[in-house]
Amino acid sequence: MGGPSIPARTLRTLPPIPLSGTVPGPFVFLRKTVWFFMPSSRIQLSQDMLIAAFGDNWSPDDVSAAAELLAGGEGRFPSGIRSLPSDLVRAIQRERLLAATMRASTELGYRDFSVQDVLDRAGVSRPTFYEHFKNKEDGFLAAFDSAASRLRKRLERAAGEAAEGSWRDRLRLALEELLRFVSEEPDSATTLIVDARAASQAALQRRDELLESFAACLDSQVREDPAGSDGGSEVSAAGIVGGIESLLYSRLYRGEGKDLDSLLPSLMYFAVLPYEGHEAASEEMSAASTVG
Question: What is the Cα–Cα distance from 268 to 115, expressed in whole angstroms?
């Protein structure tokens, strides 16, 4: 078929087609079936991604061999694998399904993707999916938990680099890492920030708990810093985290998840202002502008 391809994000943000009159019927059909003509993107798991997911659970040689097999099989294991530990193969299948769930949700939206969309992107069979998850929601919740865990670890690691610094130093490093996470893992970020809002009640609860944990961490960092401010409150921390999440939601929903470094100065000003006032917030805004 000729003609230009249609970006997935553009399709996802199309406004609903009116259902009044007699003409819209074919257009509704086209809107629901246009994905049939678009090739799905097969998930590729690199050796670094597998090592990050599994840590020391398996030997580097086994993980390397698995990555090579996946690369040679266009993202899926050749049939009849016998050279790898069966539990490693099972763990990798699960990681592929998690990554495929996030990819399908990012490309199609939570409400519109199906288990089949996940299978197409993961390159696994339907029975394999149901060995790991009860249904689409169960798979999405597992994907959310996986992405949230990676984000927490990255932020903790980044903030830990300024363990001897001020709370503002730790916050700056954490925000830098947050923006890097969004750029490097757009599917994970979209799952956490965008699609969880449209998913089940359980997903909404997980999202709320994630934001609350970040707010509590921010507030405790300020309170425990000897040079910390007496201003602000737990409500301030919740407002800061919520504001940052809303800004990222807007960017991701519009497909603008790349090159977010320019947001850092404004985010630092926004976060420091309730605790230490305009002058300190302006200092942080200037300092963040020189980063990189």
Answer: 40
Asked which of 95, 112, 133 is the last residue of a domain, the reply is 133
Per-residue pLDDT of the chain (292 residues; tens, 9 = 90+): 444 443 444 444 433 434 444 434 443 333 333 333 344 577 777 777 777 777 677 777 877 777 777 666 666 666 655 577 788 888 889 999 999 999 999 999 999 999 999 999 998 899 999 999 999 999 999 999 999 999 999 999 999 888 888 899 999 999 999 999 999 999 999 999 999 999 999 999 999 999 999 999 999 888 887 666 666 677 899 999 999 999 999 999 998 888 898 999 999 999 999 988 899 889 889 888 876 5
Domain limits for position 86: 47-133
Q: Write out the H or E segment, with its range, that includes residue 155.
A: helix 136-160
What secondary structure letter does DSSP report for 258?
A: S
What is the number of other CB atoms lying within 10 angstroms of the CB of residue 25? 11
d(CA 234, CA 131): 42
The residue type at 261: D
> Within this chain, do residues 281 and 163 fall inside the same structural domain, yes or no?
yes
Q: Which phi and psi (to 5°) does residue 217 adopt?
A: -65, -45
What whole-number distance in Å separates Cα of residue 76 and Cα of residue 58?
Answer: 19
Q: What is the pTM of this model?
A: 0.80
Nearest to 285 by CA among 256, 259, 264, 260: 264
